[in-house]
Design a protein that fits this description.
2 copies of one chain form a homodimer. By secondary structure, the first copy, chain A, is mainly alpha-helical. Chain A is built from 8 helices and 2 strands. The longest helix of chain A is centred in the last third of the chain and has 22 residues. The interface between A and B is large, with 71 and 72 residues. The structure holds a DNA duplex (30 and 30 nucleotides).
DNA sequence: CACCAGTAGTTGCTTTGCGCAACTATATAG
DNA sequence: CTATATAGTTGCGCAAAGCAACTACTGGTG
């Protein structure tokens, strides 16, 4: 078999990986064929790795802080409820993500001019710098942590994940 | 490029899905190109869906209970530390997953004959029935929740996820 | 055979995560 | 003017996860 000509992503799967795999020497029953198992397991490892990378920053310890920082940096005046929708969290949860970022001086809350109930969120200079740092960390993780996927194969995996994500979001509405 | 040779899963993605996507009308910055974003988001939705499906069972509310039930059903006498390795949790966490299953009468703990420090875990009749029910729920979710992936495409996505999972696990050791 | 380092599992503590209900303030429809 | 809906906050409770300390047992070594 001409292993060398097989695209990298496919090469990663030797024929025997399609046979039953074992985790720590154990078969995992129906979970071996379950998308949910792999997605859930991957999440756990990826999140741990990311958490390690941001441990020294104010966005550490919390799942939505990175997304929030980037959104506020990109959309001055964005409202918490919009962030909540992206994060798929309820408003209380989102408020509690924003609180420490405001306290740390990365984000400013202002009462919206058009709607006195709503807040507009704005990045500060300090916050903008943090956002830049965060962007680089995300890019680093993508490169370093997912280094086992050959550069030309990333597109394929990415497209599949993106499609799954978009489809799954539709299910929620 | 010979598009016809491209695996089916890639066909799911129309060209315009490769353009910038928006979530709730917003662009998500570098996260749009980040594996971690999609993996983490998918996890959240998949886990919620699974949680809903098992809400009426004793394996509800907890991430490792399903895996534990299946492992104990398949490997009579298995030890908590082995389960911990599969779950990638520490032993205290694993013990706390097992506790309620023992209390509910699905699993029996026995002191191992060879090693008096260790416990062997055994399924009960009630537990075996629960395991069967759980297997069906997992299969149902795979079919119903991931119904947007064409049957012939599932293999490809599965292989990529499996490969990512196996590679990522290696990173931990 | 006494000692000691290592391992299995448990308990306690702390921090975070996350959904729900209740509350205040404002907006909007009738 | 009143009723209903929406934006955001606060309080609460429960589950998750990491860490340290503890008990109990093992297996190797002097």
């Amino acid at each position: 078999m001409d292993q060398d000509r097989v695209p990298q992503v496919l090469k990663m799967h030797k024929p025997d990986e399609d046979a039953q795999i074992t985790i720590a020497g154990l078969h995992i029953d129906v979970l071996e064929g379950a998308f949910s198992w792999y997605i859930r397991s991957l999440d756990s490892v990826v999140s741990q790795d990311l958490e390690r990378r941001i441990a020294h920053l104010d966005v550490a310890k919390g799942k939505g802080k990175i997304t929030t920082m980037l959104l506020v940096d990109d959309y001055p005046g964005i409202r918490p409820s919009q962030i909540a929708e992206v994060l798929m969290r309820d408003r209380p949860a989102t408020g509690r993500i924003i609180d420490p970022l405001v306290k740390a001086g990365h984000i400013r809350r202002e009462i919206s001019a058009e709607d006195q109930r709503a807040h507009g969120l704005f990045i500060t200079q300090k916050g903008h710098e943090l956002a830049q740092e965060v962007r680089q960390i995300i890019r680093d993780q993508e490169e370093e942590f997912f280094d086992f996927i050959a550069p030309e194969d990333r597109q394929d995996f990415m497209r599949m994940l993106k499609s799954a994500y978009l489809n799954v979001r539709k299910k929620l509405k």
